[in-house]
Amino acid sequence: MSSTPKPSVDPDREARRLSRRGFAVWGTAVAAATAAWFATPTRDAAGRLSGTLRRSLWWNERLARAGFRRSSRSPEFPRSAARMPITNGMVGLMNPIDLDAWRLRVVGAGGDAAARVFTLDAIRALPAVERVVELICVEGWSVPVHWSGVRLIDLAARTGLAARDGRPFDPDDPPPASALFDYVALSTPDRQYYVGLDAASALHPQTLLGLGMDGKPLALVNGAPLRAVVPVKYGFKSLKRLGRIEFTDRRPADFWCEKGYDWYAGL
Ligand SMILES: Nc1nc2c(c(=O)[nH]1)N[C@H]1C(S)=C(S)[C@@H](COP(=O)(O)O)O[C@H]1N2
Ligand SMILES: [Mo]
Predict the structure, then answer these.
(1) Do strands 244-248 and 104-107 pair parallel, antiparallel, or not at all (unpaired)?
(2) Contact 41, 96 (CB under 8 A)
(3) How far is CA 183 from the centre of its chain?
């Protein structure tokens, strides 16, 4: 004859105790999440997006930045897969440009007073790279493009302009993020088009200063003489007709972000 073992605790009392504890834990978590939500900055695209959407974008960016690694790569394609993209976006390309007088101005440690100026030949003197990566436009098309150019990190490292102390560093073994400026601002010579990048994306090994497309020098409509190529971001960050680069700790303004797009725009 077996007797039912006596429970060591009274199940009803235990259930009540657990649900009280559950309520305390979940209640605290919900309150903390709510507080975090309403404390979330909504600085970007002020007035254009709802507070809810801006808060979601802020949290998306936090998660994406936490997961972003130098070693994460945008997919690369064989040369045979490359095509010419749809020419898209002419903001900042409407003023006449004298290609012989063109210079790239780079501002970093020391500010504007210590800005460095580069000719196209000085850019071409950096190690040449070619890549076939996708240009992905938020308007709903994407195409693998064959780019030639130089890595932005090679310019940033050799000049030291990306480092807070202004010291040059090894592009293949960069110092920790805390030694570098947080952001990079890019703009056209007339400053009509401008984009902001987080430093990790700007100094990512796939991010280029593009000199050519499809094996030929860039056409004016594609950003001659020099453009940004940022494969880890949507196409609107790949600024054409680069005139100025600034390494900064202030989050830069971004043309499309002011019209309501996500500032981070990571892929
Ligand atoms: N100066 C400038 N750069 C720009 C734009 C622009 O309007 N002005 N448009 C962007 C957008 S939205 C895309 S998708 C790509 C398109 O590059 P492509 O015209 O070479 O195909 O350029 C980006 N760079
Ligand atoms: Mo785009």
Answers:
(1) parallel
(2) no
(3) 9
Alpha carbon of residue 170 to chain centroid: 21
For the Cβ of 89 lying below 6 angstroms from any atom of ligand 1, the answer is: yes
- The torsion defined by the Cα of 112, 118, 119 and 125, in degrees rounded to 10, comes to -170
**Helix and strand totals (H; E) in the chain:** 5, 10
Q: How far does CA 241 lie from the centroid of its chain?
A: 18
190-234 pLDDT, tens digit per residue, is: 999 999 999 999 999 999 999 999 999 999 999 999 999 999 999
| Cα 89 to averaged position of ligand 2 atoms, centre (Å) | 7
What span, in angstroms and rounded, lies between the C-alpha atoms of 1 and 247?
A: 82
How far does the centroid of ligand 2 lie from the alpha carbon of residue 50, in Å?
Answer: 23
First to last CA, the chain: 68
Of the listed ranges 21-25, 136-140, 242-246, 251-255, the one predicted with least confidence: 21-25
Q: Are 167 and 182 in contact (CB under 8 A)?
A: no
- Which residue is closest in CA terms to ligand 1's atom 9? 89
**Residues listed for the chain:** 267
Cβ of 255 below 6 Å from ligand 1:
no
Residues, CB within 5 angstroms of ligand 2 (ion): 137, 235-236
